[in-house]
Specification:
The protein is α/β, with parallel strands linked by helices. The chain is built from 8 helices and 10 strands. A 6-stranded mixed β-sheet has the order 6-7-8-3-9-10, with helices on both faces. Strands 2-1-4-5 form a 4-stranded antiparallel β-sheet, with helices on one face. Strand 9 and strand 10 form a beta hairpin. The longest helix has 18 residues. It is globular. It starts with a strand and ends with a helix. The structure holds adenosine-5'-diphosphate (2 copies). One adenosine-5'-diphosphate binds next to helix 3 and helix 4. The site of one adenosine-5'-diphosphate (ADP) has 13 residues, from helix 3 and helix 4. GO terms for molecular function: ATP binding; ATP hydrolysis activity; transmembrane transporter activity. It comes from Prauserella shujinwangii. One of its GO terms (biological process) is amino acid transport. Keywords: Amino-acid transport, ATP-binding, Nucleotide-binding, Transport. One of its GO terms (cellular component) is plasma membrane.
C-alpha cells in the first residue's frame, strides 16, 4: 500500500515558480492497477517521480506500507527504492531482447539458470518468447515497450511505475501493452501505477483512478464509481 498525503511540489521556473503538485493525496492498494489521468502539464510525471522516490516533495509525505519515505536517505532510501521499478523505455540495442530483460538480474548477481528461468517467464508474459534472440531494433514500437516493461519486472519489484506507457504506440499495440500490465498485476501480484493523458487507457485496465488537473486531484476512487457519477 502506497499513500501520498498532502504532497506539494514546485520548481523554480523562469522567475516565477511553477507549482507542479498542490496538496495531492491518494492511496494505492497493494495489487491494484492504479491510473493517474490528466492533460499534459497536470503534474503526472512529477507525481510518478515522487511515488518512485526519485523526487522529494516540498511538503507532504509518501508512505510505503506506513513507512514515511520523505526523510529517508542513504541505504534505507536505496532499500525502499528497490521495491519500485520505473519502466525505462530506452533499450540497449547492442543486446538481445532476452539480454535486455536479463540486465537487472545480471546486475543483481542472480545466477545463470535462475536468470534464464526468470527471463523465460517474463518473455512469456509479454508474448515475445519467439523473439528472445533478436535485437530490439527489429521489433515494433509496441513490442519494444513490452520488453521495457519485462525488464522493469525482472527483479520482482512490488510496485511497477509506467509513466504514459502507451505514448507513441498505436491503438492495436497499446491493447497488447495494457494486457501485459494487467498480467503483471494478476500473475505476478505486482502493484501497477500508470499515468496517461488518455482516459480510454485508464478505462481499459485500471481499477482505481485519480484525475489530475493543474497539480490537483479533482476526482479519485474506483473507476466504476467515477463512471456512473452524473
Ligand atoms: P505531466 O506529466 O502531467 O505532463 P509534469 O509533471 O511533467 O506534468 O509537469 C507539471 C508542471 O511542472 C509543468 O508545468 C512542468 O513544466 C513543470 N515541471 C515538471 N518538472 C519540472 C522540472 N524539473 N523543472 C521545472 N519545471 C518542471
Ligand atoms: P546478450 O547477447 O545481449 O548478452 P544473451 O542472448 O547472451 O544476451 O542473453 C543474456 C541473458 O538472457 C542471459 O542471462 C541468458 O541466460 C538469458 N537468456 C537468453 N536467451 C534466453 C531465453 N530464450 N529465455 C530465457 N533467458 C534467456
Amino acid at each position: 500500500m502506497i499513500t501520498v498525503e498532502n504532497v506539494s511540489k514546485s520548481f523554480p521556473g523562469n522567475g516565477t515558480p511553477v507549482t507542479a503538485l498542490r496538496d495531492v493525496s491518494l492511496a494505492v492498494d497493494a495489487g491494484a492497477l492504479y491510473g493517474v489521468v490528466g492533460p499534459a502539464g497536470a503534474g503526472k510525471s512529477t507525481l510518478a517521480r515522487c511515488v518512485a522516490l526519485q523526487e522529494r516533495p516540498d511538503r507532504g509525505v509518501v508512505r510505503y506500507d506506513g513507512l514515511n519515505t520523505t526523510r529517508l536517505d542513504g541505504r534505507k532510501l536505496r532499500d525502499t527504492r528497490r521495491q519500485v521499478a520505473v519502466v525505462d523505455t530506452r533499450l540497449r540495442d547492442e543486446r538481445t531482447v532476452a539480454g535486455n530483460v536479463a540486465l537487472p538480474l545480471e546486475l543483481g548477481g542472480v545466477d545463470g539458470p535462475q536468470r534464464r528461468n526468470r527471463v523465460g517467464t517474463l518473455l512469456d508474459l509479454i508474448g515475445l518468447t519467439q523473439r528472445a534472440g533478436d535485437r530490439p531494433e527489429s521489433l515494433t514500437p509496441g513490442q519494444r515497450r513490452r520488453v521495457a516493461v519485462a525488464r522493469a519486472l525482472a527483479a520482482a519489484p512490488s510496485v511497477l511505475l509506467a509513466d504514459d506507457p502507451t505514448r507513441g504506440v498505436d491503438a492495436e499495440e497499446s491493447g497488447a501493452l495494457l494486457t501485459v500490465l494487467d498480467r503483471a498485476r494478476a500473475e505476478l501480484g505486482t502493484t501497477v501505477v500508470l499515468t496517461t493523458p488518455d482516459a480510454s487507457v485508464a478505462r481499459r485496465v485500471c481499477d482505481d483512478v485519480a484525475l489530475l488537473e493543474r497539480g490537483t486531484v479533482v476526482e479519485s476512487g474506483k473507476l466504476l464509481d467515477l463512471l456512473v457519477k452524473p
